[in-house]
Amino acid sequence: MTTTDTPLTKVLGAKTAKALEDHLDLRTAGDLIYHFPRRYDQRGEHTDLRSLQVDEQVTVLAQVQGMSVKPMRQRRGNMLEVTIGDGSGATLTCTFFNQAWRERELRKGVWGLFAGKVTEFRGKRQLNGPAYQLLSADASKDDAAAEIEEFAGALIPVYPAAQAVPTWVIAKCVRTLLDTFEPPDDPMPAGIRAARNLVGIGTALREIHRPSSEPSLYSAKHRLKWDEAFAVQLTLVQRRAKAAAAPGTARPRADAGLLAKFDASLPYELTEGQRDVGEEIAADLARPHPMHRLLQGEVGSGKTLVSVRAMLQVVDAGGQAALLAPTEVLATQHFRGISAQLGALGRAGELDGDPEGTQLTLVTGSLGAAARRAALAKVADGTAGIVVGTHALLYEGVDFKDLGLVVVDEQHRFGVEQRDALRAKAARPPHVLVMTATPIPRTVAMTVYGDLETSVLSQLPRGRSPIASHVIPALEKPAYLDRAWVRIKEEVRAGHQAYVVCPRIGEDEETPPKDDEPSRRPPLAVTEVLPLLRDEYLKGLRIAVLHGKMPPEEKDAVMRSFAAGDLDVLVATTVIEVGVDVPNSTVMLILDADRFGVSQLHQLRGRVGRGSAPGICLLHTEAVEGSAARERLDAVASTTDGFKLSEIDLEQRREGDVLGASQSGKHSHLRLLSLLRDEKLIKEARAEASTLIGDDPDLSRHPALAASVAALVDEDRAEYLEKG
User: Short name of one Pfam family for this protein (predicted)?
Assistant: First the structure.
């Protein structure tokens, strides 16, 4: 009998088990049984070859249509080119070097599974030396009889595979495992199984690998998706319940304090969204339990102002607030921006300061020894009511008198350990507000941030200008790029400023392409583009560079010059992605825009149009029309709705990344749940989890379920999910 804990060496033998461990990180029977097919092919319903993308690892079901043997030009020997097709009209070339003998088995008309990496050579897509498994009975070698029986079924499982362990090898291993596999006792409470019409776990695990019919496969997937959603929601509901019960310090709003003075001094009205979210946060801060709230809002929606008002409420109540930023550029920008907003209220003790105000202090790694000592003294004795800093706030020697609120900006750039380190500097758990300008789809917020209360700012403040975005297809219409440089010069002549963004700094070396593997050119780099701009395209303009490898004092000097209007153009990497606020900047040209993600492009675009003049974002690309990369850029250009774009972004990302699998570095069992398509299921799982935890907070009456949750959401991933 084989159980989920049985090592694969006992089921499959040492050689096969080692290959599965080395290439796919599968060690036990449980690992393999939860290595689900990523799709199913049917005989006669073949994969559409037109959907394949260059550099994609694929397995295709196709038919040999023709072949030719040619001598190689660069070296001795010959090359066998086999043309395969799937009935869609598209074809793919399989190339074999010095293997003309394969001509005997790859005969015209034979169907087979072909696996490899899609490359492109002279405009043709190809697989170089693909692994293959023929489905014809005429090619019945190496256990082909079992393979033919497998592929004669209605549904053919296609597994996530590796070059050394193709999908048909995995299918054979799973068949061997299922012969002796004893499923675990079903951990799902019987009442939930009945209410939600869920099949048993044993049936689900067998049918997901060897479906007897499409309805049976649907039922199996539905049950296993439920397990994944339920495990995550149970974890998050437990964490929210523990957080709600933890002791904290209430920081109620004062009737006549710094916050009231600050509000009275504002030269504009708060938006309705800022007022509503402010009330939610104020109520949280007044409770004797730590706030754990996520504040998400569009670029420029006024999140920082909301956080400043929250920090002033805590200062009014006798506490201190810390704002943690991911980079020195952003921390410095926040410090200057908040200083300007507070005015005399942030300069208590200075000649022009308000004696009833507080002090604002900046703590970064680049502070000199004397400045650092002075800043840390103000933090320790409470003189600094608001402390802005980078990771330097986490170091030993940074001690707060009474830390009452932690604000984390762009929280996705910080690990759980870093946030915990800052929270640990408080005598009692502080209130926590995490902010992001990356819009989050509703199901992601529910699944990944489910232990946080969520506030959304979607309304832009008055006076913010619209941003027009355009794709520049450099290969099809090179004149468009020439026009882009002219447009930048026109904006500068009109008294405005510009950004030119590159994907790379230029100091790092690209990995050289492998033999016989065509490669895209390296992404454009700041150091390569700069001399071209100075000497040719933007000659005569005042240009400077900003990137992450510059010394902090240089970065700060460049940002000061740009903000002061002493520079016309800033050539930068994504170091400007968040927080950089120069209202006079009106145009941004993003070179090789297809090398960036959707959310990243949306964030970058938010650096322009921050003043009264309209913003322009130009997306340069060599991606051809109809490609996935081009469609992504067209989507960004078509809307400034960050929430729509976030769903497009989610469609193109691995869901495991969203759920934290890549953060933990461990094998993930969260494989089937789709945060876009399974919103209803996630909501149902959330409701059942809330009811169950309310009745059994530690799952002590459901030990099998607790063990299942621990297997599906391991401790590292559980820590990742704890965003507070």
Answer: Helicase_C
